[in-house]
Design goal:
- The protein is built from three helices and seven strands, in the order βαββαββαββ.
- Helix content is 22%, strand content 31%.
- It starts with a strand and ends in a 14-residue tail after the last strand.
- The protein is of the alpha+beta class.
Length: 153
């Protein structure tokens, strides 16, 4: 039975977390989809690779059959301060390690920004630069009755 470890995060927005997870891949290189990720208002038990119920619970769960072969569930539990703690087994931390969590944070920050733009009706584009860094560009529109060029008399 693999032991679970908790990893503190600064993640607070559950919807942005799920959207970020949908940009990450599992051990076999498969990108997670929304249907592979469970969300629960009340934290629900995680299961080990043999289907055994663990004492650890989580609000956001990727079940073992989506995590990878002979895997345990991966979860994120919301703490009393509203931050999500990643719950990852020692066995699965070979793939779901600090490097994977760093990618998740990057995607989380991008998704949080996109959600803010969407809530304000701001159009944006997303691209990657030559180094593979994600870039968001907001498209702000000047009011129709206002010229973008100011002239001085």
């Amino acid at each position: 039975m693999s032991h679970y470890n908790g990893f503190e995060t600064t993640i607070t927005n559950q919807e942005a977390l799920v959207r970020a997870l949908c940009r990450c891949n599992n051990r076999e290189g498969i990108i997670f989809t929304q249907s592979m990720i469970e969300t629960h208002d009340k934290a629900t038990h995680l299961y080990g690779y043999q289907g055994d119920k663990r004492q650890q619970t989580a609000n956001v769960i990727i079940r073992r059959n989506h995590v990878g072969g002979a895997a345990n569930d991966v979860g994120f539990v919301k703490d009393k301060d509203g931050r999500f703690q990643a719950i990852i087994s020692e066995y699965d931390s070979g793939h779901y390690d600090q490097h994977w969590l760093t990618k998740l944070y990057t995607y989380y920050n991008v998704e949080t920004s996109k959600m803010e733009y969407e809530s304000r009706g701001i159009e944006y584009t997303e691209s990657k630069d030559d180094a593979g860094r994600i870039q968001l560009r907001a498209k702000f529109k000047a009011p129709a009755n206002q010229s973008r060029i100011k002239t001085h008399s």
